[in-house]
Amino acid sequence: MRRLLTPRALILFSATVAATVAVVFFLRRPRPASLVAPEPKEQTAAPWPPEPILGRPTEEDLVRMRGEYVPPKPRRPLPRWAVGGIVLAVVAGLGQLFVYAVFDEPRIPAAPGHACAPPGCDTETVDEFTWSVLSEADPGLVYESVPDDGFEPPPPLVVGPDADCVPSRGAPVVAAPAKRTTRLVNRQWRRIEAWLGKNAPESRAALGAPARPRAIAEAEAVMGLRFPDDLKASLLRHDGGLGIMLDHLMPVARIAETWRSLCDIDAEDVADARDDWWDGRMIPIGEDGMGNHLIVDSVVGDVGDSDHEGTLTFEPGGVRIGSHLELLEKVADALERNEPLGWWRPRVVGGVLAWEP
């Protein structure tokens, strides 16, 4: 059903319905009873005395003058051209709503996230660097050591070279994101832009200009994958430049360059792509300058954090983030409400947005 209902077929169907309504409307018009010209009426003498300039009062005028109730005149029916216009507008509106509902739905819905209170989630251990940062920010934290039972998880099972890092190079294909997804992404960006413009003008000015659709298509061709629609719509709004927690969003050219360098470092494939610190199907979207990257799984669509020490987690900052759209929404909520995003709270230093633990 979805394959048959292409946008072009839907437009043709709507045009056919509109044309059919118009044809039926004009065919059913009552025709004049006769086309013979009426005989001219005989000229009669003007009445005497002559008609007053303002006319003689009618019975209705006399009733109104006496203060009696005059029933309102019945409304005239709409002309046929107006009825036809209303019908065509309703058909076109229903067709557009159908297109939005079927063809322009977001391809990567935002999954419900859950917060994680520092210093960790459940039994998750905290590395020495993270603990030092958290303890400096909050000296009242108490570190609960986890007993070492000597057990170490086995390394990921290597099954061969990472085929995702050696894609078959195809021609760039420019494809626009879904309109509904673009509207949702732009809504979150407007919230972020408004807050930055009011509170952190330096960071607002540092936001990248919109990326070229051709540049996104070329990056997809180099990486052998498709960007999720929400990530593509975000790049078309701002080509990087926003600081999120410890990372800064990268422009599309830097995304392709970082992907290539990470594939050069780790070209092995493991049984579970999400169990290794890097896999070619991941899209690096942010970096902190220390070898760590914010990534998006091009298959699942959720946001993760690749650590240079060899770990990959899909709870960056201790928060589950189901999509790039949800990441922007959580950033906007944290800015407007002055609430932490996972382990990190936004603050402004000299007109620049910063994140402190």
From TrEMBL:
<dbReference type="InterPro" id="IPR051873">
    <property type="entry name" value="KNR4/SMI1_regulator"/>
</dbReference>
<keyword id="KW-1133">Transmembrane helix</keyword>
<feature type="transmembrane region" description="Helical">
    <location>
        <begin position="6"/>
        <end position="27"/>
    </location>
</feature>
<keyword id="KW-0812">Transmembrane</keyword>
<keyword id="KW-0472">Membrane</keyword>
<dbReference type="InterPro" id="IPR037883">
    <property type="entry name" value="Knr4/Smi1-like_sf"/>
</dbReference>
<protein>
    <recommendedName>
        <fullName>Knr4/Smi1-like domain-containing protein</fullName>
    </recommendedName>
</protein>
<dbReference type="Pfam" id="PF09346">
    <property type="entry name" value="SMI1_KNR4"/>
</dbReference>
<feature type="region of interest" description="Disordered">
    <location>
        <begin position="37"/>
        <end position="56"/>
    </location>
</feature>
<feature type="domain" description="Knr4/Smi1-like">
    <location>
        <begin position="210"/>
        <end position="337"/>
    </location>
</feature>
<feature type="transmembrane region" description="Helical">
    <location>
        <begin position="81"/>
        <end position="103"/>
    </location>
</feature>
<dbReference type="InterPro" id="IPR018958">
    <property type="entry name" value="Knr4/Smi1-like_dom"/>
</dbReference>
